[in-house]
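Long-time lurker. I teach an intro course on protein structure, and each term I like to show students one example going from raw sequence to a predicted 3D structure in token notation. This year I'd like something fresh instead of my usual example. Would anyone be willing to generate the tokens for the chain below so I can use it in lecture? Attribution to the forum is fine with me.
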Amino acid sequence: MNRRDTALDVFRQSTAQTAYVNSMRMTVLASGSKGNSTVISSSRTRVLVDAGLSCRELLKRMAIVGEDPATLDAILITHEHIDHVAGLAVLARRLNIPVFFTEPTHRAWVRMLTPRTTMSYAKWLDHVQREKEARAASVAAQEEAGIDIAASAFRSDDPNATLELPVEEELGDSEAPKAIAPKEKANPAHLPAVEYFQAGTHFCIGDLDITPFTIPHDAADPCGFVFEAEGIRMALATDLGYMPPNVKLALKRIDVLLLESNHDLEMLRDGPYPWSVKQRVLSRVGHLSNDATAEFLQKDYDGASAYIVLGHLSESNNAPELARISAEQAIAGRMTLLGNRIILAQQAAPLESIYL
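-- Reply from a regular --
Happy to contribute to a lecture. Here you go:
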């Protein structure tokens, strides 16, 4: 290769990089029932939406697609289900970045990470008896030492005492040496910083204008997002049982749309899930079927997107080609090289970044 060819290669690379300086980018790291995570970037800001894989796997997938985790400004959470938050705490602490939730979602996530156990009645009685014996031993020791003990110092057993104790709490001998007491466990829900937002109220992170919207799903306060920067709009709408009017309105004038197409109705009905799970998926707080997604694309979609990314495809109850064909038939003649291109997000591997 001569010097002229080398110079041309450098120029092409420089031109390609410059073309993306004033752009937005969506990178779907994973989408499905085993884990969901997407990077949304503007020229100055990068956020991660959901962290549904382990920290190690998320970092691995970011490396595969050339996303530098050190440049992330924040993590946003759609809802508290495990396939959206599995690696959240570890990743946020490792990168030392804030996490944005709705307040009910944060509370639900903290409860999920703080397991508690309920005592049986027999165990509670045993606990009470041991407390009595400990108090009696303490009184006897003070009497021997000549200490006058007021009657008011005694308390009767509280019949309304809570039976719920943290799992890590030990009900050991009260006189056990403090030196050998077990160390206090670290708080599994600790995060570097927590910020709250409300569905329907837009907020900003850097130059990203973000509008969260309520979605119908069986979580504490689930939401989707619209991201806007430099005149480009990208949206994520997965994990919703149907398409209510507010979601249809939010998904207008979107340039890149990540939209759920979870299951094929016949495959779900004939599939391996227990009937109770099938009922949940089919409910109005479950997941969008291929047919429901196609109905939205045919009747309510405005045709404005350059790319439609079909996400959260069930590995057990869907086939990628069924989802693709259903969506393509719904948008019919509106598919072109410059608009309404259908892409399928994957569970096992990240997608190449979509630039606009």
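Some talking points for your students: Residues 121-144 form the longest helix (24 residues). The chain has a mean pLDDT of 85.
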